[in-house]
Design a protein that fits this description.
It is built from 1 helix and 11 strands; from the N terminus they run H-E-E-E-E-E-E-E-E-E-E-E. It is mainly β.
Amino acid sequence: MWLLFFMVLGLSSVRLSSAYADGSVADACGSMVPGHTGFTPQMTNPPYRVRVNRSTYTPGESLTVTLEAVQSGTDFQGFMLQARRTAGGAPVGSFSSTNTGMFRLHKCFNMENSTISHASANLKTQFVATWVAPLSPSLGNIEFCATFVKDYSNFWTMVSSNTVLADSSV
């Protein structure tokens, strides 16, 4: 009887520890905190960065966003990325990527493809995505916010890019 109990307990633990290995993020859309039971985000400076290829954008324009390790030996297993107004709020715009098979697109806050995440726990040193600004000219300044997961117990949330300014000439 005890053997059966420990087998069930062990299998339950395995499922808990791999719950987000495939990039599922529905429960983390707002906070960007993965559901890693018993662990909280790291408070140290992240060994990762979020880079954007432009400092301004116009409605409908595509920007390239790069997630990357800043030092060797700091590969990441998982990530979650959103564009958000600097004034706060839900994600804006939509993502795509050429790294098919390495990512999943998500609908957060009823916005299709507003969030992109990893598709597997394979180690990564870099991930490149394309973000398309909405056609609305009133979006304002934005920043790209990411969660980087080094492993189940070590992750950093709300790692932000430089502010990307809305082109005021539009």
